From TrEMBL, chain A:
It comes from Kribbella turkmenica. It comes from the Bacteria. Keywords: 2Fe-2S, 3Fe-4S, 4Fe-4S, Iron, Iron-sulfur, Metal-binding, Oxidoreductase, Tricarboxylic acid cycle. This is Succinate dehydrogenase iron-sulfur subunit. It is an enzyme of class 1 (oxidoreductase). Its EC number is 1.3.5.1. It catalyses: a quinone + succinate = fumarate + a quinol. Pathway: Carbohydrate metabolism; tricarboxylic acid cycle. Pfam families: Fer2_3 (PF13085), Fer4_10 (PF13237). Residues 3-95 form the 2Fe-2S ferredoxin-type domain. Residues 136-158 form the 4Fe-4S ferredoxin-type domain. One of its GO terms (biological process) is tricarboxylic acid cycle.
UniProtKB/TrEMBL annotation, chain B:
It catalyses: a quinone + succinate = fumarate + a quinol. The lineage of its organism: Bacteria, Bacillati, Actinomycetota, Actinomycetes, Propionibacteriales. InterPro entries: FAD-dep_OxRdtase_2_FAD-bd, FAD/NAD-bd_sf, FRD_SDH_FAD_BS, Fum_R/Succ_DH_flav-like_C_sf, Fum_Rdtase/Succ_DH_flav-like_C, SdhA/FrdA/AprA, Succ_DH/fumarate_Rdtase_cat_sf, Succ_DH_flav_su_fwd. Coiled coil: none annotated. This is Succinate dehydrogenase flavoprotein subunit. Gene3D superfamilies: FAD/NAD(P)-binding domain, Fumarate reductase/succinate dehydrogenase flavoprotein-like, C-terminal domain, succinate dehydrogenase protein domain, Succinate dehydrogenase/fumarate reductase flavoprotein, catalytic domain. It comes from Kribbella turkmenica. Its EC number is 1.3.5.1. Pathway: Carbohydrate metabolism; tricarboxylic acid cycle; fumarate from succinate (bacterial route): step 1/1. It is a peripheral membrane protein. FAD binds at residues 12-17, 34-49, 217, 379, 395-396. Belongs to the FAD-dependent oxidoreductase 2 family. FRD/SDH subfamily.
Length: 234, 580
């Protein structure tokens, strides 16, 4: 089938303003949006620029705004997009665009790094593994699935309007350790998230949950962190 | 152009690179260069687990694991190295747990373990639960956990820095030259030690589980320096790729009870491996599947694949143990694994060969001589712990054990070594390479050449090979080299020029495809992942030896590939017939 793909192009080496360009591509219904982008880059216009790597939704490189919604290009099939109409592709919002669909990921990773996203323990290490019950392991299973693609954070209206808010992903990253029974850094981490730019900025819009390509219940995780802050207990 | 100086430079930020960085950065000033972001590395796509004889759920010991590794590798494994890996496996898993890795747990709260192909108790008696896992996303958890530890330890990363050359003075490694993707600027890194941990080259094949970015850059760089590559003919084809796509479905699917079936609904692995059936090593299962298809027992309209059957498993069990791979089947093939069988076919998965190293991770310039200051670990390296066929889970083990060892060795060497003075214009090779491609005006496109390369490799150098097919591949590669000399890119800019990047990557792929095929032509036997229909038996008299390939220039300046051989280290296991 012939599909029209409209892409927001921007290369500051060449132009001052981003502009839409439409490409016509022959695709199978089961092709992914990433296949469409590759066909354009490989057969029509080599200057089209985007990040990608694994191509099956585990590396988190190719989050972009497809038909107005944040998704991974490699996990979005053409047939699921109403391909009779033009498909629009633009960079994720709220991070500086460097070229075409490539954005500056540093502010995003900075937010992640700021919540102490690592296991904190004290005292002597056991000789064998730390014991953890299956029930305790299950408490944070959902948030271990995060691939740091930024689809959630860049779908959040608070993040768009306010450059300071950590964004949903950083809270997911913190949740993964706050609710891990082995971790002893909860107090410090909750203090960081209690900051004026922390969890309280969340307006429970649920955009993040809708956007997550891994199916993480992001808003629920944020609510659990809020509750932990109110009751000071996890 | 910018200049930097670090004691240790690590190239690649997957599992091996970050595990090395955690050791090295504790001891000395370390930089990690990656052409991606660390969390994008393909370690994250590994699924099924990491084997170690923890004996958490049943009796096990590391000696059995060593035996399985040696036998699984069809006796081409260096047994001293396999022993190191399997002995250190237990601590490697426990280290990850202490770093926070969320393993699945047993009822007692210990790390849970499950079955995996080729892993047996007491030297092949029966399958054993040895694989430590986190659902079917163990690699994702390892990559995340190692990155988290790197954050904790303030490891210094240079993200989206593409290393394109290794600098050497008098046979010693002295640094690297990197191309910064965001700006197109070159950076010269002076380093006492360089560790390559840049992964494999699965993109020489069309049907592959590998990421687009796995183009063998590290092997290619070393190759162009005239340094050897070992056992390049041994490439693993993973049995269960999603048919037509190559997306990996973990062996854990069979470890959890999944069964392979042909069009008659027969559990055909019972004929090929009566004892362990669907849990035979990957080379045997992949060949059995390809054989079913060739003999007309394949499924689908063209009979081009077989089926992976999970329908007898409880949906709750599937959700708990195999959530990601069943989602892949739903997303990409529209198949519901609770009730429908999944179409699968072998997919190019893993390079057993690579940069030869010893057990410390030191890279070798010949059979025995170490290259001072150069290290390699993970898929880019060949220790050799995988021999002719890697067992499932042993790659996640390899990156942790030998990533750690290479990091320690590189840092310790740096403590005694000095920075070398570079000759004039150390960046010249990279400038010529990059600017040559940027300014080229030929009529060939990267994508067309790459597609033709992948097509000939799939057709002629895959699960089944013959002298005729390999010679055809070589003829095709020769043509592709000529076409590549006329390649041009459309993007002439400096900023995020991924058009240019793909051209550079293709250059590495063509080089490595040629090494693979030349090595495979010379190995007139069948062993592990290398199967020759015209020599369908293992030949220990003539070929119980590693291939060492060297790039040489003749008097006229033409590139020749010279093959040499290296003995296999055998300690306690004598080669025997490989039955399962």
């Amino acid at each position: 089938m012939d599909v029209k793909v409209k892409i927001l192009r921007y290369n500051p080496e060449v132009v001052d303003e981003a502009e839409w360009k439409t490409y016509s591509v022959t695709l199978q219904p089961t092709d992914r949006v990433l296949d469409a982008l590759h066909k354009i880059k490989w057969d029509q216009d080599g200057t089209l620029t985007f990040r990608r790597s694994c191509a099956h939704g585990v590396c988190g490189s190719d989050a972009m705004r497809i038909n107005g919604r944040n998704r991974l290009a490699c996990k979005t099939l053409i047939k699921d997009l109403n391909p009779e109409k033009e498909i629009t592709v633009e960079p994720i919002k709220g991070l500086p665009v460097l070229k075409d669909l490539v954005v500056d990921m540093e502010p995003f990773f900075d937010a992640y790094r700021s919540v102490m996203p690592f296991l904190v323990t004290s005292g002597h290490e056991p000789t064998r593994e730390r014991i953890q019950s299956q029930a305790d392991r299950d408490r944070f299973d959902d948030t271990t699935k995060c691939i740091l693609c930024a689809a959630c954070t860049t779908s959040c209206p608070v993040f768009w309007s306010d450059g300071q808010y950590f964004g949903p992903q950083a809270i997911v990253g913190a949740h993964r350790f706050i609710f891990d029974s082995r971790d002893e850094g909860t107090e410090q981490r909750l203090e960081i998230l209690n900051d004026k730019e922390g969890v309280w900025r969340c307006r429970t819009t649920f955009n993040c949950t809708d956007a997550c390509p891994r199916g993480i219940e992001v808003t629920k995780a944020i609510q659990e962190v809020k509750r932990a802050l109110i009751f000071r207990r996890v | 152009m910018q200049r930097h100086q670090y004691d240790v430079v690590i190239v690649g930020a997957g599992g091996a690179g970050m595990r090395a960085a955690l050791e090295s950065s504790k001891r000395t000033r370390t930089a990690v260069l990656t052409k991606l972001y660390p969390t994008r590395s393909h370690t994250g796509a590994a699924q099924g687990g990491m084997c170690a004889a923890l004996a958490n759920v049943e009796e096990d010991n590391w000696e059995w694991h060593t035996f399985d590794t040696v036998k699984g590798g069809d006796f081409l494994v260096d047994q001293d190295a396999a022993e190191v890996m399997c002995r250190e496996a237990v601590d490697a898993v426990l280290d990850l747990e202490k770093m926070g890795l969320p393993f699945n747990r047993t009822a007692e709260g210990k790390i849970d373990q499950r079955f995996f192909g080729g892993h047996t108790r007491n030297h092949g008696e029966a399958v054993v639960r040895r694989s430590c896992f986190a659902a079917d996303r163990t690699g994702h958890m390892i990559l995340q956990t190692l990155y988290q530890q790197c954050i904790k330890q303030n490891v210094e990363f240079f993200n989206e820095f593409y290393v394109l050359d290794l600098l050497m003075v008098d046979g010693r490694s002295t640094g690297v030259v990197a191309y910064e993707l965001a700006t197109g600027e070159l950076h010269i890194f002076s380093a006492k030690s360089v560790v390559f941990a840049s992964g494999g080259f699965g993109k020489v094949f069309r049907t592959t589980s590998n990421a687009h970015t796995l183009t063998g850059d590290g092997m290619g760089i070393v190759w162009r320096k005239g340094l050897p590559l070992e056992d390049m003919e041994f490439f693993q084809f993973h049995p269960t790729g999603l048919a037509g796509l190559g997306v990996l479905l973990s062996e854990a699917a069979r470890g959890e009870g999944g069964i392979l079936r042909n069009k008659d609904n027969e559990r055909f692995m019972e004929r090929y491996a009566p004892t362990v059936k669907d849990l035979a090593p990957r080379d045997m299962v992949a060949r059995a599947m390809a054989n079913e298809v060739r003999e007309g027992r394949g499924c689908g309209p063209d009979g081009a694949y077989v089926m992976l059957d999970l329908t007898h498993l409880e949906p709750a069990h599937i959700d708990a143990k195999l959530p990601d791979i069943t989602e892949f089947a739903r997303t990409y093939l529209g198949v519901e694994p609770y009730t429908e069988q999944i179409p699968v076919f072998p997919t190019a998965h893993y390079a057993m060969g690579g940069i030869p190293t010893n057990v410390k991770g030191e890279a070798l310039a010949s059979n025995d001589d170490v290259i001072p200051g150069l290290y390699a670990a993970g898929e880019v390296a060949c220790v050799s712990v995988h021999g002719a066929n890697r067992l499932g889970t042993n790659s996640l083990l390899d990156i942790n054990v030998f990533g750690r060892r290479a990091g320690i060795a590189a840092a310790e060497y740096a403590e005694t070594a000095v920075f070398e003075e570079f000759p004039d214009a150390p960046e010249k090779f990279v400038v010529d390479l990059v600017e040559g491609l940027r300014n080229a005006t030929g009529d060939e496109r990267v994508a067309a050449i790459r597609a033709d390369l992948q097509a000939t490799m799939d057709l002629n150098a895959q699960v089944y090979r013959t002298e005729g097919s390999l010679k055809q591949a070589l003829v095709d590669i020769e043509t592709l080299k000529e076409r590549f000399s006329r390649v041009a890119v459309q993007d002439k800019g400096k900023r995020f020029n991924t058009d240019l990047l793909e051209a550079v990557e293709l250059g590495f792929l063509i080089d490595l495809a040629e090494v693979l095929v030349v090595s495979a032509l010379a190995r007139k036997e069948s062993r592990g992942g290398h199967f020759r229909e015209d020599y369908d038996k293992r030949d220990d008299v003539n070929f119980m030896r590693h291939t060492m390939a060297y790039r040489e220039l003749d008097a006229d300046g033409n590139v020749n590939i010279r093959l040499d051989y290296k003995p296999v280290v055998q300690t306690r296991y004598k080669p025997m017939e490989r039955k399962y």
